[in-house]
Amino acid sequence: MPYRCYIVPPHLLKAISESSHNSDSIRRAALAALGSHQAFAAKRKNHIEQVIQSRRSSRAQQASPFVPTHVLRHVSHSEHVTQEVRANAAKTLEHDLALTAETQLAADVGKPPKEAPRRSIYDAGHTTSERRLPGKLVRAEGDKETNDKAVNEAYDNVGTVLDFYKDTFKWNSIDNMNMDVMSSVHFGEQYENAFWDSEERQMVFGDGGEFLSNFAGCVDVIGHELTHAVTEHTSAFSYQGQPGALNEHISDVFGIMIKQKVQDEKAEDADWLIGEDCILPGVKGVALRNMKAPGTAYDDPRFGKDPQVGNMKDYVEMYEDNGGVHIYSGIPNKAFYLAAKAFGGYSWEKAGQIWWQTLRSGKLSENSTFLQFADATVNIAKKEFDDDVAKTVRKAWDDVGIRLRYQLSLPTLRSLSAIDKAPDRRKVLQTACLAAEFRSFPISQAEKNLFREINDHTGIPYPITGPATEPWHKVFLLIQIDLLRGGWPNKISANGRKELMRESARIYTVMDRVLRCLADILGEREDGRGVTVTLDVLRSVNAKVWEGTEMELLQVEGIGAAKMKRLTDANIKTIKQLAGLEFYHIERLLSRNPPFGHQMLNQLSGFPLLHMQVSVISNYTPAQNGNQDASMPVFRQSWVTRVVLGYSNDTLPTWCKRSPWATLVIEGDDGRLLWFWRGNVKRMESTKVMFVRLDAKKGESIKATLACEGIVGTLVRFTLTV
């Protein structure tokens, strides 16, 4: 199905068609253009969905195995594994090699190489029928200029766009395979728009009317429209909501860079106006969009006011315009402007390169949100440039209200990054409680007695020194008393208790984000001990029970403090032990009648019973030249290691009506992170086998820790001597 990507947004056409300041003919023309836009909006979505489905299918068929073929080849001949393991590795290797050959053959068939794209310009003869496009050929690649200004402008500007992509990003035409580009001018009668037609794979330009014109002469317009096609071949964002706004944003970004390149403007000197030359004299406006100041491009009674927004505080879910793709694209647009201006120089030198590499990184899905896209640009900035460049990009996103990944403030990120190596539980929890987001939870006068009692007389593991006065004291003590499951002391009024309960829900939501961010920071540092401890605290906070204590039994519905004491007196201290009892033993220990025992065992059948095995198969030999990684200390070697994860439940484990996620951390004997994995327990069905590379000294003891998130008592450990 075709789709059309219009440079003039629907809200502008709607404003023109509804304004009483316009003549009937102008309103009818705008209404007709709007009708055309709406008719193809659904087709645009369908087309992109088809592109996405095709890409998914292609990815499923591509031979890109997780385990490299040279590893499988080594395992298939290794004397250190069983015959069964060697046979399975050989079978897998044969399958992967065959699949790779088939994929390459399919990719090569029918695709002869081209040296350069060819441009062709057609005269649509003022037709409004897509079936009559492209029209009459009036200028082909290499032909001399014609007497038609629109034809020559379209020819030259398409060439400028293609040259920009080739020279700046080494990208050939819109598909990187030198695809030919067709354009049709003189579409419709006084048609005030231009668009990219996905089915015909061509640009279409109207001649314009009372307010809007000169589409073929605007290089940023052509850059915008052709970039939609480039996006299809890189990160095909769906055309709805935030992904759709990102689609529009990418086209604006590359359109404005092309305009600035033509005009030799640096980021600080440019006007950052999209479609500036499309607005005819007499209109109270400067362009179709203003990336520097979204919402200020025009304000004319015949047009209405520019509705774009430039900050997430103004983001509201909407139905029109596919969820506001032309309105909310102003938010990432301003972020790009801020980053480019902060870098100085030309916009395509740093900011443009970061956005381009992000688009091609493969880390974006078709449903990527602003937050996910922002996070990807920061990661790319750090990878391609350095930390200072990444901080500049991060600040640009922060300034438009998009907090990266965990939606945490910069002071919080700085404080989390300052944590010492291999922190213990207390340090992890205290550092998390010092997050700037918790400053909005001060200790009120009515709460002072409560927190003094919690600190001095409840037996929490980590009391504070001195009086509890700071907001972080409140969070630190509140979480500890909750994890003891002893209840809050009766040192606060009923109204104060209700208010504290409301605050508590928000505190735990923020704490989850803070701890996950801290785990990522420690993981980036390769601090395996720190990651393990942080995940331990995160698990405890989410379960509201300390990991490694007999209070894990309180996670079971129907077991309170009294029943837990009966069980622990009988030396039943874990959920796994409880699940191993017969139903009548449970009823006897807890003094309950049938069918209590059966009901309890039915509940416990969903508690994840994880198991893990780690074994070293052989030395790892790099595929290229057999050289060892220069960044690895000479006393360490690389080992091909087999990791098997699974569960012993009869059916898929579900706890609290959900299938839990699990984390695996492998660390060296000095606490450094060797491997990390996270996935849903569904992926362990029939066991999950991974071949991983671990860098360790011969004779070193490595520790593997596997546990479910949000549940205590699932933890299993495995120690292996290399």
Automatic annotation (TrEMBL):
Domain SEC63: 405-722
Superkingdom of source: Eukaryota
Family annotation (InterPro entries): Metalloprotease_M4, Peptidase_M4, Peptidase_M4/M1_CTD_sf, Peptidase_M4_C_domain, Peptidase_M4_domain, Sec63-dom
Entry keyword Ion transport: no
SMART domains membership: Sec63 (SM00973)
Assigned keywords, A-Z: Hydrolase, Metal-binding, Metalloprotease, Protease, Zinc
A Gene Ontology BP annotation from the UniProt entry: proteolysis
Molecular-function GO terms, alphabetical: metal ion binding; metalloendopeptidase activity
Entry's family note: Belongs to the peptidase M4 family.
Protein name as it appears in the record: SEC63 domain-containing protein
Organismal lineage: Eukaryota, Fungi, Dikarya, Ascomycota, Pezizomycotina
